[in-house]
Amino acid sequence: MIDIGDRLSALGRRLALLIFAPLLIVASPARAELVPTYSSTTGVRLNPLGLFEQFQLRLTKPLAAADETDPLWAGTYVRAEATLFASPATIGPGVGITAQPINIMRLSASYTPIYYWGTFDSLQSFPSPNADFRPSQAENRPSYSAWIHQWNIALLLQMKVRHIVVRSETVASYLHANLQGADTAYYDFVWDIAAPKRGWVIQNDSDILWLVSDRLTVGIRNTLVTALYPDWVFLPGESPDPENLPNDRLGPIVAYKLSLETTGKFREPTLFLTTQWYIASRYRTGDDVSRAIPYLLGGINFSGW
């Protein structure tokens, strides 16, 4: 029988460790407990078109003992991160911290200033989110270089029952964009929306996954993106266009591990592919782009040290 008092006491100790973990990372004499790693994700995207590399350096402090066997606590951690996101149109160095105090929940916070080169029809800004930013006319609109500062907070909830995993991650991003003139919105090619000059964008990814084998995972993903527009981003007398938001996509995902190696400098290289059809989108459900054309995201990720 599980002793509720002992479990609550263990929970209290782990929560206290989570609160003070950033200090422990800096001050702990047990330097061997700090685990440096890197991760790399390279991807290509269609509808909208994109190519990117995200490289991350990590310094991880385990929260659980190495011999912990309770699946709720084993492998829990807190880590500091330095990230570089690069594409032909942007570059963004970032810093962040991620904590997984319990295996059904992960929290993170990060800051990334993103520089738009002004190439490949980005950055393009508008006097209102209601402005026409349809993809087919992108090459006819002026673009320019600018910095966009992005602060992110994220919450991931997940649960595994035998070979089935259910997870949902919500990321809230506050934007501060240096737009030209009196423009109050810009087209963000990652979220595929008119993002506010200053304000929040929220994205949720919800997955149901089947762990077919040690190498193969298949599932379905729903991606929902919306923005919280302040009143001042609209022109005088203008109301928000109900067709503008949200963006909603649904479709299958698959990932295949080329190797099961979990140690060394090149660990678990994994191919991934996401195929989603737009359920809701201002321009990608027939107004400018056929609903039959899916969103595609494919690539490879790996880690090591």
Topology (elements, then pairings):
Elements: H1 4-27, E1 35-46, E2 50-62, E3 77-86, E4 90-102, E5 105-116, E6 125-126, E7 146-161, E8 164-177, E9 185-188, E10 193-196, E11 198-211, E12 216-228, E13 247-257, E14 267-280, E15 295-304
Antiparallel strand pairs: 1-2, 1-15, 2-3, 3-4, 4-5, 5-7, 6-9, 7-8, 8-11, 9-10, 11-12, 12-13, 13-14, 14-15
Please give a structural write-up:
Helix content is 8%, strand content 53%. It is mainly beta and 305 residues long. It has one domain (35-304): Beta Barrel (Porin), CATH 2.40.160.40. The longest helix has 24 residues, at 4-27. The model is unreliable at 1-9 and 15-32 (pLDDT under 50).
Per CATH, the architecture is Beta Barrel
Q: Write down the CATH topology.
A: Porin
Structural class: mainly beta
> If strands are numbered along the chain, what order do they take across the biggest sheet?
1-2-3-4-5-7-8-11-12-13-14-15
Subunit arrangement of the protein: single chain
Number of strands: 15
Let me know the CATH homologous superfamily. monomeric porin ompg
- Using only C-alpha atoms, the radius of gyration works out to 21 Å
State the end-to-end CA separation.
Answer: 42 Å
- Rounded average pLDDT: 90
Structure in a nutshell:
The chain contains one helix and 15 strands, in the order αβββββββββββββββ.
Structural descriptors:
53% strand, 3-stranded antiparallel β-sheet, single chain, globular, 12-stranded antiparallel β-barrel, Porin, mainly beta, 305 residues
